[in-house]
Amino acid sequence: MEKRFSGKGVLVTGAGSGIGRAIAVRFAREDAMVGVNYHQNTEGAKKTLEMIVAEGGEGMLLPADVRQSRAVEDMVDTLVEKFRSLDVLVNNSGIGSSTSPDRVHEISEEDWDRVMAVNLKGCMLTSKAVLKYFMKQRSGSIINISSIRGLLGNPVLASYCASKGGEVTLTKEMALDYASYNIRVNCICPGFIDTEMFRVYLSKQEDPRGARDTFSKMALLDRIGRPEEIASVCAFLASDAASFITGVALPVDGGYTANGVREIQ
What separation in angstroms does the CA of 11 have from each of 35, 61, 62, 220, 246? Predict the structure, then answer.
């Protein structure tokens, strides 16, 4: 595999499992030094670091709650102190449905604030902490992991759709503000991806296998995506091969958003 990130520092938030883990490992395979952020999933983050080391890469664990500005600032400063380099930020931290029904007339204010704080405020705070380095060196790449739900609505996902839609438009706004510093800001909008979180969701359905088949058929390619497929797109957007790409919200969804909602036969 090509080593496009030799000597470069990369920070991946929410890297203890799923898409975040796949992204961290992919950058390690391409010789990046990877900061593995996590909040509560300590064992998952340790596993991610083990996988990075197994790839011959260098990494470090960076526990921090992305909702807390001081914790985020300390995390970024710690990474820079160790790696002496920071070139890529992947804002992947995110949470799903609330404990209360996620419709505007039912959701609790506490649940709404919690989802928005992790998914959107966390993206902003981590970007803010990293930008002080990127602006000084006049280079850098920020990639926000949003969702197809940031592009299309979905029943009973009010806070999630709002937060992920906010990530999409924040991406475009930051691309405008920081292009003059040679900082590129892009967004990936994954479709249905075979992560631990997705499998837990399926296990709670009355017919888990049938539910999986239904989600597969929603994509034009008739399957669920793999975390590694999101990771490969992320690595491309962070690389010099994508040097003329900024302000993009890219669906990686097997064609789901190309057809809106596909009719299931």
Answer: 5, 10, 9, 33, 19
